[in-house]
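Retro notes - structure team

What went well: the batch runner handled both jobs without manual restarts.
What didn't: labels got mixed up in the shared folder, which is why I'm recording both outputs here explicitly, each with its sequence directly above its tokens.

Job 1
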Amino acid sequence: MRKRCGDRLPTFSAEEKELIKGTSEFFGLNHYSTAYVAAPKGKAQTLSMWGNVQAGGYFDDQEVELIDDPRWGRSDMDWGVVPWGIKHMCEYIQREYNPQGGILVTENGCAVPDDDVTVAQNDNFRVEFYQGYIAQLHKAIQCGADVRAYFAWSLLDNFEWALGYSKRFGLVHVDYKTQKRTPKKSALVMSDICKTNVLRLPRHVLEASNFVMIEEGAGRKTTKDAPPSQKQQGAVEISPRSVGGLGA
């Protein structure tokens, strides 16, 4: 980071370093997806949610290509569903930072096209998303990650930044005209987990949540923020030997 950012990084006096040292109460992690990273051919480029090339700031500083396994499920944001990514991320945080207040997963969830309340009450895609991610989070804890809290994003369907009300992340369906709230199937599943402290999931969901290496020659560019960027991109070829993992 120091090499890439140079004098753009802030500096701290000895007194300021002493003042802030050890003041972090916990490590807060917002996690939605995972991608492989590879050295780019030429200059790396990422596309915004509008399909425009992004430049400047951390986009240029990363200087990597982000690549998805085409076998991964995809949310309504066109983000890959990669449960093992949260396990790897929490283990990395524990190993590198050993946060004294532990790790709090402050956001984790997925958008599903469930405008229709009847469809929303059977949001099986979201149910399996949470089952897979929580299963892998449990594995991270078993492997030594000090994870102390988990927050699903989100309780209610809401205004999703530049995409407005077009994307729904909620456990509870909101009729934006009447403001009526209706719990989705995922809300009932999460409620049961909280009540019983037990995660119940089908064996095939557990097995699908585990790490499987991307096949040689396979890969598609990662959607950085939101669709429709994938519609404007073709497949890419990569070599697994040049690829690393990334959680986000």
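Job 2
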Amino acid sequence: MNPSRFLYPGKHWKLGSFAESGDVNSAESTSSGSKDGKYELLAVGNDIITEEIKDLMAKTEVRAQLTETLLAGSLAKALCYIHKVNKELEAGHELKSRILVVKAAEDSAAQYMNFMNVIFAAQKQNILIDACVLDSESGLLQQASDITGGLYLKIPQVQSLSQYLLWVFLPDPEQRSKLVLPPPVHVDYRAACFCHRNLIEIGYVCSVCLSIFCNFSPICTTCETAFRIALPPILKTKKKKPKLPTLNFLTS
């Protein structure tokens, strides 16, 4: 599976490097947005992200028609970065963080366990996960948005992506309560079995480690707990007593 990495900040550029050096003219001369009056650092950010995407696509190995992405690893990196920034803040300061996932690939049931661990870690840190889905519906992102209190939206038209990003996902949670947003979707809470990584509706759950299986097994493959199978009670057949002959008397 392909690795995940940061697109911004890039490898060769650190946040605030231009502000510390004061070399704004160099940023204007090298950035693509210097001619149209765009803010220099935003233009530099666009150029860095563009170059990182080109480098990532060039080094990514395409296998057949698979469109799976390392979504759980990307979210884990985002949580680690947020935790790092929070530790660098001064005492008394708090950073309200959010994560926006723009997804155009299919769900991967093999990442279910790692993905759910990331979701609960984000919920514990009060980090919202918003999901902007471009292609097919994503049950995993529906669960992530519902658990963390974020927004889930499947874009009806890709041409209007920028409008949805500015109107739906840019406002913070306090401002969203005053806006008329798209109605919430029905959340697909199906879980993935531990044996085949398939999303199932009905399955067997281990009472010790809460592992989910699509087929019954007397031994849990996760914690190796052996279960006692309660067999149905054996009913003893009662011997029928032989019927004694009866004599009938007729009287007149």
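One thing worth noting from job 2: The beta strands are 98-103, 128-133, 152-154, 191-192, 199-200, 204-205, 212-213.
We'll revisit the folder naming next retro.
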